[in-house]
Amino acid sequence: MARYLSQVQADLNKLSEWAVTRVLHIENVKADALAIITVTLLVKEAVLLPIYLQTASLIATTSVCSTSETDINWMCEIETYLSIGELLEEEKQTYKIRGQVAHFTLIRDNLYRQYFEGPYLKCLNNPEA
User: Which one-letter DSSP state was computed for residue 61?
Assistant: First the structure.
């Protein structure tokens, strides 16, 4: 830092008149781009690089809300199994529900999903969500 300061003072002494002014960031964008290029590239000879500055995005952004209709029947099946212990007659469906029930619990007639070392998450139907 001291070497830089002495170099700047030596360069300023060579000039007869000088002034320090503040340049806005918007006006200094091209100079910043050129400074970054000179620092990152090893230039052995004069190279002309085209620089394109994009001020605004060409892609229009729109907000997207994704919704899907789900059947709340899965909640009813798990709730009835946890409260009463009854399952459907279909063998594949009962096997599936028994596997899912391990991750759920009933607290005051509300169905909650359990996560390992995490909080209980309340299962909501469509009107509540």
Answer: P
